Amino acid sequence: MRRLGIIGGTFDPVHTGHLIAAEEARDVLGLDHMMFIPARIPPHKQAWCISDAKHRLAMLHQAVDANPMFSVNPMELERTGPSFTVDTIRAIRTGYTVEDILFIMGHDSFHEIETWFQYQQLISLCRLVVVSRPGTPPVQPEHFSESIRRLFPHQVISLDSSSKRMDNVMTSPWRICFLIIAGLKVSASEIRFRVRTGRSIRYVVPDGVRQYIIDNHLYSEDSGGIEGNAYSAHK
Ligand code: ATP
Asked: Are both 171 and 144 inside the same structural domain?
């Protein structure tokens, strides 16, 4: 495989915003495959009740299994100890023959990148594709911290997914790409809120995921969850 895309997250639940972002990045950058890697949440971070890993994994399978270009990799869930993205990318590099790895994230995640464990190494091991996320402010070059400017000078590009597919882009040595997509203003927290308050989640999650949520009584008042700020697991 030449170019592998990876999207990590809590996926509680996976939603159409994730799927569109992954597909847009795969399509515009000509990636061969996109892997969804759900994060392991350490027990002490579960105060606000993130769903059990088995449910998050099952919903991901419901969402992506029909697409041969997409797959789910449970490696972080199976690992003990902290779940650092940089370790995941190293493990993928060891376990797969792949020329280029691209890690896909939303603007909101990129705003926090410098809090991620060994983020400089991460950006050296894989390229970052930062997709626009409606409702979160875009990252402007002037927002780049000094360290990113210093470490990756001239290695940041911007693309618009409405332009035609650009295979030649991949041959240039960029490390961070800002990709404007026709995204969806949807979040997992909003979906959980909708379920709890009896609102519709049709079309904001794939049908199989919606049915799974219903069948397993996820996110309802009596499922024991209390809403709070989402823990960002990819650090
Ligand atoms: P929560 O609302 O619980 O914080 P979330 O919707 O942000 O969840 P995550 O699983 O935390 O979902 O997100 C995984 C990755 O997908 C992150 O990099 C995030 O920025 C990105 N992402 C999530 N939703 C969207 C969206 N609607 N458009 C683009 N990127 C998204």
From this structure: yes
